[in-house]
UniProtKB/TrEMBL annotation:
Residues 451-460, 470-493 have a biased composition (Polar residues). It comes from the Bacteria. Residues 30-169 form the Glycosyltransferase subfamily 4-like N-terminal domain. This is Spore coat protein SA. Residues 396-406 have a biased composition (Basic and acidic residues). The keyword Repeat does not apply. The lineage of its organism: Bacteria, Bacillati, Bacillota, Bacilli, Bacillales.
Length: 521
């Protein structure tokens, strides 16, 4: 078959910048290309050409980053290229545009996140999209169960295909190929003779690495040789310092335990940090689909402590290859789980060996490729004997889109007319209100001035009081011989001055009242 695989608009394929979906596609391609003709459509990147063919797989890269821009590029590409089957990754909102552009192709949808929630897609559009797909592949039972819960009619189409890992890239630290790498990396970062805990993932609130940092003070009381390595950044290949990144660095700086923060590590180098570690900790506090770092930790022979969120526990055999923290919000729960493993070196060794065994037997990429091929074959076998006419196939989609988007010309005219009417009405109301406000304000000011003036005419001014007091204070202190006569004279002077100032104030008040009584010009 001629098959198109449509990646998401965020990161390119091959995964030069990382990304779980991009790694999933790249890991399975060596097995898929042997059975079918494959084209991968993805977002462009400055480090990659817009078109190239690698090992028989054609790559086409178009502008993206923003979903609407990417969607337009996808539909334009499909208008000039035909495929038997189109495999869309993690974007159910692409299903209907793809169906319109390719009405006869079979569609498979792979879900790596909970993208069918009402916050992500309109439920009506989601229902129509689910009708158009032949199969729904999910990376965990958790994601599949969520889709079936929201849309029971889709349950029979859902199949979980767990991700895989390159077991030749991710090797235990004691493996002959990794022993030197492990020793050099530990020596360069002051980790010699340390028991190294490893976190790898995005530095964000929902990934929860701050809980692990807050668990370290108590852990350090129980184990005196601990160190922590934090691999990752706020987003793939971006090392910007966000508030959360600054927060975890601040927490780490207060500790006596060594904490190494690497920032973003390229996908072709990250295996070195797994080899340098002794125990892997996933601290996710959100309903994570199933972090692929679990597969990498198993391949590297590391015991795992993870959280009971989303699909993460699905790859953990309790007590065999790791432990699960039921409530990851509380750092003390990480303290207890990690302590249980570190305090039993035999258990720690067995867990690492079991993880490596599971990676080799269950999570190789050839198994992923084989299961995807089965899904594609099932899609072709389920095709009806009488092909559905293209015009009929998109009727429901066009109906939905017409209901969601009214005629743009009519809507534009109605909006313009309503806007003009509203502006005119608002202008009249504003003018009337302004005139009323001015008249009211003028009356209020006049009334206030009259009241204030009348009040000043009825009671002695404080100015008079202060003036008299000042004069009294400035009068020279009399001697004993003439003190009595001087006091009488001073009292008389005060009375005269006070009377004089009061008369002046009354005269001034009358002038003010007469001025207010005159008609304004």
């Amino acid at each position: 078959m001629n098959i198109l695989m449509i990646c998401t608009e965020k990161l390119p394929v091959p995964p030069v910048l990382g990304g779980a979906i991009q790694t999933y596609i790249a890991g399975s391609l060596p097995y898929l290309k042997n059975a079918h003709t494959i084209t991968v459509l993805g977002v462009n990147d400055p480090s990659l050409p817009d078109e190239e063919t690698i090992d028989g797989v054609r790559y086409v890269r178009i502008p993206g980053k923003v979903f609407t821009v990417y969607q337009e590029g996808v539909t334009q590409y499909l208008e000039t290229n035909e495929f038997d089957l189109i495999h869309i990754f993690n974007r159910p909102r692409l299903v209907l545009p793809v169906r319109q552009a390719a009405p006869n192709a079979k569609i498979t949808l792979s879900m790596h996140n909970d993208m069918f929630s009402p916050e992500k897609i309109n439920p009506e559009e989601a229902a129509l999209a689910l009708e158009e797909v032949s199969n729904i592949v999910t990376v965990s039972d958790y994601i599949g169960n969520e889709i079936s819960r929201l849309f029971p009619q889709a349950a029979t189409k859902v199949k979980t295909i767990y991700s895989g890992v390159d077991t030749e890239q991710f090797l235990p630290g004691h493996h002959p190929k990794m022993r030197q790498v492990r020793n050099e990396l530990r020596r360069a970062n002051g980790l010699e003779n340390k028991t190294v805990l490893l976190f790898a993932g995005r530095l964000s609130h929902n990934k929860g690495v701050d809980r692990l940092i807050r668990a370290l003070p108590e852990l350090s009381k129980r184990f005196n040789d601990l160190a922590l390595v934090i691999v990752g950044s706020k987003w793939f290949s971006q090392n910007d310092v966000t508030d959360y990144v600054a927060y975890i660095r601040s927490l780490a700086n207060r500790l006596s335990v060594p904490v190494v923060t690497t920032g973003f590590v390229a996908p072709n180098e990250i295996q070195n940090w797994f080899a340098a570690a002794d125990l892997f900790v996933c601290t996710s506090v959100w309903q994570e689909p199933l972090a692929r770092v679990h597969y990498e930790a198993m391949a590297a022979g590391l015991p795992i402590v993870t959280t009971a969120r989303g699909g993460n526990p699905e790859v953990i055999q309790l007590g065999e290859n790791g432990l699960v923290v039921e409530n990851p919000e509380d750092p003390n729960n990480f303290t207890e789980a990690i302590s249980k493993i570190l305090s039993n070196k035999a258990l720690m060794k067995r867990m690492g060996e079991k993880g490596r065994e599971l990676a080799l037997t269950l999570y190789q990429w050839d198994r992923v490729g084989s299961e995807i091929l089965d899904v594609w074959n099932h899609a072709t076998l389920s095709q009806s004997t009488a092909p559905v006419p293209a015009a009929n196939k998109v009727t429901s989609i066009e109906k939905y889109r017409n209901e969601q988007r009214p005629n743009k010309t009519t809507a534009k005219k109605a909006t313009a007319k309503k806007s003009a009417t509203n502006k005119a009405t608002a202008k009249k109301a504003t003018a009337k209100k302004s005139a009323t406000n001015k008249a009211t304000a003028k009356k209020a000011i006049a009334k206030k001035n009259t009241v204030q003036t009348e009040q000043r005419s009825k009671q002695p001014s404080k100015l008079v009081e202060r003036t008299v007091a000042n004069l009294a204070n400035s009068t020279p202190t009399p001697t004993n011989q003439n003190q009595s006569g001087t006091n009488r004279q001073s009292s008389l002077n005060k009375k005269v001055l006070k009377s004089f100032l009061q008369e002046m104030l009354i005269a001034s008040t009358k002038q003010s009242l007469e001025k207010l009584a005159r008609p304004s010009k």
